[in-house]
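Protocol step 4 of 5: obtain the predicted structure for the target chain.
Materials: sequence only (see below). No template structures provided, no constraints applied. The aim of this step is simply to have a reference model before the mutagenesis design in step 5. Sequence pasted as it appears in the construct record:
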Amino acid sequence: MKVEQIYTGCLAEAAYYIESNGEAAIIDPLREVSPYIEKAAKDKAKIKYIFETHFHADFVSGHVDLAKKSGGQIVFGPEASAQFDFYQASDGEKFMVGDVSITALHTPGHTMESTTYLLKDESEVPYCIFSGDTLFIGDVGRPDLAVKSELTKEDLAGYLFDSLREKIMPLPDDVIVYPAHGAGSACGKNMSKETYDTLGNQKKVNYALNSNLLRTDFIAEVTSGLTLPPQYFPKNVAMNKGVNAEIGSILKKGTFPLEVNVFEDLVNQGALMLDVRSIADFEYEHIPNSIFIGLDGGFAPWVGTLIADIEQPIVLITPEGREEEAVTRLSRIGYDNSLGYLNGGLEAWKDAGHAVDVVQCVSPEQFAKEHANEVVADVRKVGEFNAEHVKDAEFLPLDDINEQMSKWDRNTKYFVHCRSGYRSVIAISILKSRGVHNLVNVREGFLGIQKTDVPLSNFVCAQN
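Step 4 output (structure tokens):
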């Protein structure tokens, strides 16, 4: 028996590959399916099942394409409904994969179709669970993403409480918990950076599995402190219930090299210029009005949060050799309308006689010594800001920048910072594209400010 976790850091997402005696199963596959097919081929195994724990909101799954290419059967749990053929498992139904079995345990709460899959080894001993977004390491799935008119988040939290206690907590303590996400995903609140654990240890450290926790207290805890989900979540759910374009055609279109004049024409027709290079490269020079969301940060989630139209035509400015990576990562969250990349990059743009723009920057030391008493814009998340922030800083979170543009005064000079410098450059790029230019980026962000030799008490305020 082989069980492999395939973790994708940008999405904080885990898919799983199980193989036994020439048969394989995939749990929660990403959109690009060739890695799973290649793993099975290497093991001389046939993909028999493609198990989905639920309809994902934070990425587009590859189940339909994988079924078409491998012949595997798509399996969802009870209450699932989709526009393609799949097998609907009953609660407690067993599926054989070679010499091991996988049992569907219906665990509603995160969504009503949420299902946990229990893997038993060749001796029918429980080995692990693939818990999807029902149970994370250190947390549980948020209960507000699948709310319908007849169900509230409190109703779903109640279902989740029952699912954990009736289906998961009775399992042996040495069962391994393999969740669908880790820290960084917006599908939960306080997930651990660890990507798996034993159920016994989770019973000790995960508040949601505390046997003394009352149902009412559990509901209050899991429904409190929830931020609004990213705007692309319901769009991804809809895509996961349908049949989508094959990723090969998306890659072919998105990785087409565009000469400068063609690139310009597409921009003039409404394409968004998305610069996915490094922070330093964008600061040094970039095409005016281009938007920065770098590949070396939380790329896909920020694209989904900030680019409202999932069908937005996009033209790319990429580091050389990373064009396919950019298009692939866009497609993982349903942004399929990449039209190509600027052939030759910024050098080709300048060779054509076009101007470039820059981001004004200061070091954290210079900021702390000379500018901490000027207008400071903090674009971090609310929890970060409430924990500690520069005294008198204006809280203007990047998450809400599209809705709060009116709060940025074009006549005010802002020193903009986030935690480490990634989000502040994103914010500045968006603001500059909309006519707000009096902006200075604080390099290294709040982490850099805290490392300066200026006494923190002079300019940092901790909130109680």
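Step 4 remarks: The CA atoms of residues 364 and 448 lie 5 Å apart. The chain has three domains: 2-235, 245-278+290-348, 361-462.
Proceed to step 5.
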